[in-house]
């Protein structure tokens, strides 16, 4: 059982829901990402999802795409990111979830990628471009090194397939709350509650919801049914809006508001 699994077990015992912020590695730079990561932990996040910058990101909207482009233009490489992750692991106790295109793992080689994840303190990997039919080799390598492979499910996934994906997911199930790419939005899908409850009947792990959750009010609504909430674009936008100020403090303030909303879900 790794850090993430232990965290979810503790949350379940206490009846609390998870808050998982998303941060792109290298935005605005590696030092800046470290500052925001600390702010997320200080604000009460239960885990942090960290995005490996990739030039052809599959599901990311304009905010995260721009952050990835910024990091790559500054020269960030995959080895740089893994070295940074190892440094942060030594300083932080919070679980790390790596959002990484399978393309990058395939290029490294599945075993070297899994070893790099383990050595840098990654607890789970999300590979948005990897269908379940082709996921077994990566899942096997990651599990050999005590790293979970998290599966994504979208609103357009047929129910039978969604159930299969949910049953095979490690760490947690990542349910995408909106059609299309991630990004801030004003509303949530009307059938979100029914879909999440259905997935929870089939999953062996917690069901978390992300993509498009932008406000504390939305986070509170989602936390009423899901086991946790993932928030990315809203936090990255907060960093961008405060680059000439204390952006880590600004992002931390939003994270604290999200934490309070999730805990007061009613």
As a percent range, the share of strand residues is 5-15%
CATH level-1 class: Alpha Beta
Main β-sheet description: 8 strands, parallel, barrel
- How does CATH name the architecture? Alpha-Beta Barrel
Shape: globular
Query: Topology as H/E string?
Result: HEHEHHEHHEHEHEHEHEHH
How many strands in all?
8
SSE class: alpha/beta
- Spatial sequence of strands, sheet with the most strands: 1-2-3-4-5-6-7-8
Q: Taking Cα atoms only, what radius of gyration do you get, to the nearest Å?
A: 17 Å
User: Structurally, how many domains make up the residues?
Assistant: 1
- Binned, the helix content reads 40-55%
Low-pLDDT runs of 5+ residues are 180-186
Report the total helices. Answer: 12
Q: CATH superfamily membership, which one?
A: Aldolase class I
Distance between the termini: 31 Å
Mean pLDDT: 93
CATH topology: TIM Barrel
Short structural summary:
The chain has helices spanning 3-14, 30-42, 62-73, 78-91, 102-108, 110-119, 136-144, 159-168, 192-202, 216-223, 233-241, 247-263, and strands spanning 18-24, 48-51, 96-99, 124-126, 148-153, 173-176, 207-210, 228-231.
């Amino acid at each position: 059982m790794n850090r993430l699994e232990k965290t979810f077990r503790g949350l379940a015992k206490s009846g609390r829901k998870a808050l998982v912020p998303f941060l792109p590695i290298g935005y605005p730079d590696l030092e800046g990402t470290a500052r925001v990561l600390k702010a997320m932990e200080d604000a009460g996040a239960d885990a942090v999802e960290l995005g490996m910058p990739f030039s052809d990101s599959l599901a990311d909207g304009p905010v995260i795409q721009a952050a990835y482009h910024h990091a790559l233009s500054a020269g960030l490489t995959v080895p740089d990111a893994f070295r940074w992750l190892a440094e942060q692991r030594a300083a932080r106790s919070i679980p790390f979830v790596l959002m990484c295109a399978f393309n990058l793992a395939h290029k490294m080689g599945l075993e070297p990628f899994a070893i790099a994840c383990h050595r840098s303190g990654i607890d789970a990997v999300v590979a948005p471009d990897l269908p379940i039919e082709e996921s077994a080799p990566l899942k096997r390598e990651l599990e050999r090194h005590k790293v979970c492979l998290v599966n994504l499910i979208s609103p357009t996934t047929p129910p039978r397939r969604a159930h299969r994906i949910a049953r095979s997911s490690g760490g947690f199930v990542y349910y995408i709350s909106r059609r299309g790419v991630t990004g801030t939005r004003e509303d949530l899908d009307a059938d979100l509650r029914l879909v999440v409850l259905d997935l929870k009947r089939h999953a062996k792990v917690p069901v978390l919801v992300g993509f498009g959750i932008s406000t504390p009010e939305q986070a509170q609504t989602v936390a009423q049914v899901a086991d946790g909430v993932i928030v990315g674009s809203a936090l990255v936008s907060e960093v961008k809006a405060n680059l000439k100020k204390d952006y880590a403090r600004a992002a931390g303030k939003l994270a604290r508001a999200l934490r309070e909303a999730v805990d007061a879900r009613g």
